[in-house]
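Researcher: Next entry: C2H2-type domain-containing protein (Rhizopus microsporus ATCC 52813).
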Amino acid sequence: MSSPKKIAVQLSNTCYLCERNYSTPASLHKHLKSIHHAVVASRKNFERRPPSAKYEFKHYNGDPDIPIHHACSSCFYHTANINRLKDHILKDHGPIYLESESEENEDEENEDEENEDEENEDEENEGEDNKGEGENEAQEDQRETSNGQGKNPPVRRRSLRRRKSSSADTLANDILNILVDKLHKLMRN
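Model: Predicted structure:
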């Protein structure tokens, strides 16, 4: 009785969002974080893919004779279909999407513009309601806050949104996300 022949497959570290291939799971994680702002749990460096009774694993080298399987960078799952990999990652590993710095800045700018528009509307409405009665008070207030050129200085508002974080904050956030992911896995078992 002979054992069945194993199927040779090339394992590719493929981004499930843009389908680019990377040489290592670590470089894929770096890509996910820097380009797609996604944090996904990763395997430990010492965790090696266990032997399979069905497959013989090869590193991706572009050989057209060997089928390509897209490997999960968080566990040992692999599949020939990139959409199955995406479904697996979303279902089993729940990536956390971080807000990019450029999106944060755009949001803050939009928020500031909205606040300025609302303030201008409020000032116009107040002026119409209290004409005559509060003109002297308004003129006094304007003189007190004037910068010498007859104009009020711009009001600088602090946004309640997150500010740019240091690399230590980012690292701590990544570690926290990984620990939360592992806790979810433990609770499922």
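Model: Note for the record: The first strand starts at residue 7 and ends at 14.
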